[in-house]
Design brief:
Length: 385
């Protein structure tokens, strides 16, 4: 089994999730590559204690990401830092010839994203992907299989979304995601948007224009020092896109919702596809259930399929058991290593989000900002080529 030696830059929640996934790599049955965490970097030293306690094999601890990138024992890096640092660190990783898994939105704005893509183009040997685990839920993979087979017929409508309630409490202290200088003007779109665009983009569904409605709901929050701090990021966004199906040339409406204030939801990712031959709905609110309607004339009957633990990369868990977020993260990392080694995904919907996906999301979100500001329908610049 090939070993890929990883450095981690950013020791927050997602950094610990990656470390945990690496620690349970034996859960995968047929993996021909594995990650080994050999170096970590974080500005504050307090985060190191958890890693020292659970990963005695880590050889390098540093507060300067440049020291980690200079380490010849590091083959690849996972960079999980706030959005305003993406451009600086991702470009440095590319220049250091380290394979890269980055966090969305792959740059705080379009200019930063373009600089990152330019850096990757100058270093074609660097393999780069963007973290997004939700497409690896079995229900989402089933929808990907239906798309690949052309089972939907002509697509009539698509709805995708990520509904989060983390900011429902107005007394929750402010964090970096609520600060425009750290999170960027996209707000919730930058934080959540690529998660809900990844699967449609993989299907070749390309937004041509957008009408966006953005909501700034909680305008200030406790600053943690007894005062209040302004919140200047969008809490919720609803985008209606006229979308091209590249496979058929037909157009259909696609609604994208990203909400950090969504009553009744903790962390819900969903996709609905309606077509002339079949329709399907999946939500992590009920992660074992896939609603499916296949139509060939006569009565229309929705069926509820129990998906179980059906994974792209086989695991020791049997198919009748439940699948959850840590399992999706493990599958995402298995997909990253598979594609890093083989330079092709196992199948079309079994790969991680690409830099091209991230670039298209930036074009969409930039147009959405214009649309909201002007109250207009705005064109989305098409992908290059």
């Amino acid at each position: 089994m090939k070993t890929i030696r990883f450095g981690l830059i950013g020791c927050g929640l997602m950094g610990r999730e990656f470390a945990s996934a690496a620690a349970r790599w034996c859960h995968l049955l047929d993996a021909d590559a594995r990650p080994e965490l050999v170096a970590v970097c974080n500005r504050g030293a307090g985060a190191f204690e958890w890693f020292r306690r659970h990963f005695p094999g880590i050889a390098q601890y540093t507060h300067d990401y440049r020291d980690l990138l200079a380490n010849p024992a590091v083959d690849a890096v996972y960079v999980a830092v706030p959005h305003h640092l993406h451009c600086e660190v991702y470009c440095a990783a590319a220049a250091a010839e380290k394979h890269l898994m980055g966090e969305k939105p792959f740059g705080i704005d379009r200019a930063a994203n373009t600089a990152i893509l330019d850096a990757l183009e100058r270093h074609p040997n660097v393999f780069a992907r963007c973290a997004s685990q939700w497409v690896f839920f079995p229900g989402a993979q089933r929808i990907g299989d239906l798309i690949e087979r052309g089972a939907f017929g002509q697509v009539l409508e698509v709805n995708t979304g990520f509904l989060h309630s983390g900011d429902l409490d107005p007394n929750r202290p402010i964090n970096w995601k609520r600060r425009i200088e750290h999170n960027g003007e996209y707000g919730c779109m930058g934080d959540l948007g690529l998660h809900v665009c990844c699967l449609p983009f993989r299907a070749g569904w390309i937004p041509r224009n957008v009408r966006a409605l953005l909501s700034d709901i909680v305008r200030e929050r406790p600053d943690g020092r007894g005062g209040m701090a302004p919140c200047r990021t969008w809490d919720n966004a609803t985008l209606l896109c006229e979308t091209l199906d590249s496979a058929t040339g037909s157009l259909f409406p696609w609604t994208v919702k990203t909400q950090r204030i969504a009553p009744g939801h903790k962390n819900t990712w969903y996709i609905e596809v309606y077509g002339t031959k079949a329709s399907a709905r999946f939500s992590t609110l009920d992660p074992k259930r896939l609603d499916l309607l296949e139509y060939a004339g006569g009565e229309q009957v929705w069926g509820a399929v129990q998906t179980g633990h059906e994974t792209v990369f086989p695991t020791i868990t049997g198919p009748n058991f439940e699948f959850g977020s840590p399992d999706a993260i493990l599958q995402m990392w298995a997909a990253f290593l598979h594609e890093l080694v083989h330079r092709a995904p196992l199948r079309p919907f079994a790969g991680c989000a690409t830099p091209a996906d991230a670039a298209l999301s930036h074009r969409l979100f930039t147009a959405a900002l214009r649309s909201h500001a002007r109250g207009s329908v705005e064109a989305v610049e098409p992908p290059a080529g």
